[in-house]
C-alpha cells in the first residue's frame, strides 16, 4: 500500500471551503451595507449641516455688507417705475426659512433651483415660481431624509402653522392651509400660480412646500400650501411667529 497522500481534496474539505468563502462574502456585504447606512444617515447629514450653515453665513454676510433694500427714488426727479429685481442666481441662496413646528433651532437656507447638488445644501426654490411675498406661488422643495433631513417632520404640519422667511429686508409669515397632501411626482399643478387642489380660487400670495413620500422613498410627494399672512421690515425685529 503506497504511503503517498492523495492530491485530491476530500468532500469535507470542499464543503468547509465553500462555507468559509460564503461566510467571508456575507461579512464583506454586511460591512458594505453598514458603511452605506452610516453614510446615508449620518455623513450626508453632517455635510448638509455644514453646507447649510455656510449658505446662511454667506447670506448674512452679504446682508451686513451693504443695503439690500433698493434706494427710494429722488422726489425731485422724474417719476420712474421701480427697477425689476435681479433674477436669482441658480444654486445660490437668497432667503432663510423658519418653521416653528419643526423646532426652535430649525432654520434652512433657500437656494435657487431644485437640482440634486442644490438640495444637498438646503431647500430649493422651483425656478419660475413667485418670489417670497409676491402674487403667485412661491414654491420650495426639500429632502425628507438624507442631506440633513430638513423636512423629516413634514407630516406634522397642520393648518395654521407658521412658515417664516426673510430675504434680508423683510419678514414674510405664511400660514399653512392643509394637512400634508399625498400625490405623485408628475403632479406639477401643485406649484401652479393658483394651486386649485389647495382650494384657492383666484390669484393670491401663496406658498407651496413639497417633499418625498414615503419617508425613505420617492414614489410619491407630500405637499402643503399656505397663504401670506403678514410682512414686516427686518428692522422692526423678529415676527411674533418666531417669538413663541
From TrEMBL:
Bias (Pro residues): 70-85
Start and end residues of each stretch annotated as Disordered: 65-87, 132-152
Keywords carried by this UniProt record: Hydrolase, Membrane, Transmembrane, Transmembrane helix
Lineage, opening ranks: Bacteria, Bacillati, Actinomycetota, Actinomycetes, Kitasatosporales
Recorded superkingdom: Bacteria
Stretches that traverse the bilayer: 21-43
Signal peptide region: none
Pfam families in the record: Sortase (PF04203)
Name of the molecule in the record: Sortase
Gene3D superfamilies registered for this protein in UniProt: Sortase
Amino acid at each position: 500500500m503506497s504511503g503517498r497522500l492523495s492530491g485530491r481534496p476530500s468532500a469535507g474539505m470542499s464543503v468547509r471551503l465553500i462555507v468559509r468563502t460564503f461566510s467571508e462574502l456575507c461579512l464583506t456585504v454586511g460591512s458594505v451595507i453598514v458603511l452605506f447606512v452610516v453614510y446615508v444617515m449620518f455623513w450626508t447629514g453632517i455635510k448638509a449641516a455644514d453646507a447649510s450653515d455656510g449658505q446662511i453665513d454667506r447670506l448674512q454676510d452679504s446682508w451686513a455688507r451693504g443695503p439690500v433694500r433698493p434706494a427710494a427714488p429722488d422726489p425731485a426727479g422724474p417719476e420712474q417705475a421701480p427697477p425689476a429685481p435681479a433674477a436669482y442666481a441658480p444654486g445660490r441662496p437668497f432667503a432663510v426659512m423658519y418653521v416653528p413646528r419643526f423646532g426652535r433651532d430649525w432654520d434652512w437656507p433657500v437656494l435657487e433651483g431644485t437640482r440634486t447638488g442644490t438640495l444637498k445644501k438646503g431647500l430649493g426654490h422651483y425656478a419660475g415660481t413667485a418670489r417670497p411675498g409676491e402674487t403667485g406661488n412661491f414654491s420650495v422643495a426639500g429632502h425628507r431624509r438624507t442631506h440633513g433631513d430638513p423636512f423629516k417632520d413634514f407630516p406634522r404640519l397642520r393648518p395654521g402653522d407658521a412658515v417664516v422667511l426673510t430675504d434680508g429686508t423683510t419678514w414674510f409669515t405664511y400660514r399653512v392651509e392643509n394637512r400634508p397632501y399625498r400625490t405623485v411626482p408628475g403632479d406639477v399643478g401643485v406649484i401652479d400660480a393658483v394651486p386649485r387642489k389647495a382650494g384657492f380660487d383666484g390669484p393670491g400670495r401663496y406658498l407651496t412646500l413639497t417633499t418625498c413620500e414615503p419617508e425613505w422613498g420617492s414614489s410619491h410627494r407630500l405637499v402643503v400650501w399656505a397663504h401670506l399672512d403678514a410682512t414686516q421690515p427686518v428692522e422692526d425685529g423678529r415676527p411674533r411667529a418666531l417669538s413663541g
